[in-house]
Design goal:
Number of strands of chain A: 15
Radius of gyration of chain B: 21 Å
Order of helices and strands of chain B: EEEHEHEHEHEEEEEEEEHEHEHEHEH
CATH superfamily of the largest domain in chain A: HUPs
Shape of chain B: globular
Strand content of chain B: 25-35%
Strand order of the largest sheet of chain A: 11-10-9-12-8-1-6-7-13
Shape of chain A: globular
CATH class of the largest domain in chain A: Alpha Beta
Number of helices of chain B: 9
CATH topology of the largest domain in chain A: Rossmann fold
Distance between the termini of chain A: 56 Å
Largest sheet of chain B: 7 strands, parallel
Largest sheet of chain A: 9 strands, mixed
Strand order of the largest sheet of chain B: 7-11-6-1-4-5-12
CATH class of the largest domain in chain B: Alpha Beta
Structural class of chain B: alpha/beta
Structural class of chain A: alpha/beta
CATH architecture of the largest domain in chain B: 3-Layer(aba) Sandwich
Radius of gyration of chain A: 22 Å
Distance between the termini of chain B: 46 Å
Largest interface: A-B, 76 and 93 residues
Helix content of chain A: 25-40%
Oligomer: heterodimer
Number of domains of chain B: 2
Order of helices and strands of chain A: EEEEEHEHEHEHEEEEHEEEH
Chain lengths: 257, 325
């Protein structure tokens, strides 16, 4: 089976976010594989181990993203692709990303593409379904279970807490929800092996993409931090009195009840 | 210049979700006086149409088909693209719900347009409109402009207030017949896990439990309080990992993002990943035995104490308040 995983390099979840010059400060920040993409990588490896084939992890970005690709290779992926857009694309949005990724994938005949259901930085969750649509294949988002039998696929997906059980078929793109699996940590031998696994780097020219074709449809005009919350009121006194006061405050001061 | 705006209405178990009305309010702002056309898709949805008119839609188009009884991206995609083809809207608004998140990128891709997801506020009107959306799990915000083409957004539930309902308002309800073919996904079953009644992501009140809840049974008093307040029960990852509750209740960076009017965190320490899922709630109440717990830093009101003492007392007090009101 020809399996691709779409991976994004994101800020570590523990990082404090600072803004300067209208941009998120990246200096000194730790970067990780987007946590939802880790589920996708793990699932891809399990599917390959059960059904044979090859897992290719694919990301788009700059040289820095090599580190996250190597991590995915250390987990067990077979090959990696970096679509390096550093010099070609200044402003991008989900349209841009999906277009470039689908141009790369269109002649690769993937049977299965996996991605995270959302990236924890941009948080739009658009790129997976957009890529599927551009490739003309079906997609299922926020999956929590995947079973493949020949070309038939049984899936459970999370729908705002409910579970939808569905049937579909390959080729298919799925996006991973938490609960799909427990992503493995790269093992030491895995890390050693990853260094020798193929990592291909391509640029827009290699994909015959003109910069005008990928001009973003939307534009971020400002990035800012939410207003700092003032310290709240910790109530004092007898517990019963505190509870009474709280109900009163919620009713009369905050007016939420 | 006034714009025609298409708004997708969304029903759940036979009733329209609030976000359908909120989307009409968002559409109003983008339309600058242009026509607002709500769309309803399903196997039998016509009787819900007048409700959308009362909340501000000028017109409603329904597409009814047995294949639209359950949502699939193929079925809904075909129906909606037929409506878009007929109406040629200049803007489209969806709710940022499971359905909206799944369907909107497909439609945007098909139309080759941008899509601004998870909008929590709109500043300005029409072409000048700027869309505000949280990024980095709510740790920052960005303002986004649509450069050209159709303005397509999804709005986060509970953030944009619906218009005041006008029971006297009337509007045309028409149906469009669309051939729905070649569905690549077949829904076998939907297992309802979420608590009946109030939807966690749309709830005005959320009572969330953490590790301090200690067991599955420990959620019972939280549920009781939620019932009294017409709210929903949520949980931290800690509580889910410890198997006290289903992951469908999880609020946080992984899990659901909620922005209720009132969020009561009981026995939740307030890890940064949890805060990502609830810090934009209007009023946050923290109940925790540990006065140093991080959750108190984001709380508007805090009680240092045992949730098993505090929550039942709160339930009683709110009951009294309801009786007196």
């Amino acid at each position: 089976m020809n399996i691709y995983v779409l991976v994004k390099r994101t800020f570590d979840t523990e990082e404090k976010i600072a803004v300067s010059g209208g941009k998120i400060q990246e200096d000194g920040a730790e970067f990780i594989i987007n946590p939802y993409d880790e589920y996708a990588i793990e699932e891809a490896i399990q599917v390959r181990d059960a059904h044979g084939g090859e897992v290719t992890v694919l990301t788009m970005g700059g040289e820095d993203a090599e580190k996250q690709l190597r991590t995915a290779l250390a987990m067990g992926a077979d090959k990696a692709v970096l679509i390096n857009i550093e010099d070609d694309v200044e402003e991008m949005d989900q349209f841009t990303a999906a277009y470039i990724i689908s141009e790369y994938l269109k002649d690769k005949n993937p049977d299965l593409i996996l991605a995270g259901n959302v990236a924890i930085d941009g948080g739009s969750g658009q790129v997976g379904p957009r890529v599927a649509e551009l490739l003309g294949i079906n997609y299922v988002t926020t999956i929590t279970n995947l079973e493949i039998n020949g070309t038939s696929v049984s899936i459970k997906r999370d729908v705002e807490g409910d579970t939808e059980v569905l049937e579909t078929s390959l080729p298919l793109l799925v996006t991973a929800q938490q609960g799909l699996n427990e992503p493995r940590y790269p093992s030491l031998p895995g890390i050693m092996k990853a260094k020798k696994k193929p990592l291909e780097e391509v640029e827009l020219d290699d994909l015959d993409i003109d910069e005008d074709d990928v001009e973003a449809k939307t534009e971020t005009i400002e990035i800012y931090l939410p207003p700092k919350k003032e310290a709240g009121k910790v109530l004092e006194g007898e517990l019963a009195e505190q509870v009474k006061e709280l109900v009163h405050l919620l009713h009369s001061e905050a007016k939420v009840i | 210049m006034s714009k025609k705006v298409l708004v997708l209405g969304e029903a759940r178990e036979g009733a329209l979700r609030n976000v359908s009305y909120e989307a009409i309010a968002a559409a109003k702002q983008i339309s600058e006086g242009g026509e607002i056309v709500s769309v309803l898709l399903g196997d039998s949805v016509k009787e819900l149409a007048t409700e959308l008119v009362k909340y501000g839609a000028d017109r409603v188009i329904t597409v009814e088909h047995p294949h639209l009884k359950q949502y699939t991206s193929d079925g809904y995609g075909q129906a909606l693209l037929a409506v878009i083809d007929q109406e040629k809207p200049e803007a489209i608004v969806f709710g940022h719900t499971a359905l909206g998140k799944d369907l909107s990128p497909k439609i945007a891709s098909k139309l080759q347009v941008g899509l601004v997801s998870d909008v929590t506020a709109i500043e300005g009107e029409g072409d000048a409109a700027v869309y505000v959306r949280p990024i980095y799990s709510g740790k920052a915000f960005e303002k986004v402009k649509v450069k050209d083409g159709i303005k397509f957004i999804t709005i986060r539930p509970n953030n944009i207030a619906p218009l005041v309902k006008d029971d006297g308002k009337t509007g045309d309800v028409s149906s469009l017949s669309v051939e729905i073919t070649n569905l690549r996904t077949i829904i076998k079953e939907v297992v309802r896990k979420s608590s009946e009644g109030v939807d966690l992501s749309e709830a005005k009140v959320v009572i969330a439990g953490g590790r301090g809840v200690k067991s599955e049974e420990g959620f019972a008093p939280l549920k009781e309080l939620a019932d009294v307040l017409g709210g929903a029960v949520g949980a931290s990852r800690g509580a889910c990992d410890a198997d006290y509750c289903d992951y469908s209740l999880q609020i946080g960076q992984t899990g659901k993002v909620v922005t209720p009017d009132l969020y009561i965190a009981a026995g939740i320490s307030g890890a940064i990943q949890h805060l990502a899922g609830m810090s934009n709630s209007k009023i946050i109440v923290a109940i925790n035995k540990d006065p140093e717990a991080n959750i108190f830093k984001v709380a508007d009101y805090g009680i240092v104490g045992d949730l098993f003492e505090v929550i039942p007392m709160l339930t009683e007090e709110f009951k009294k308040l309801k009786v007196n009101a």
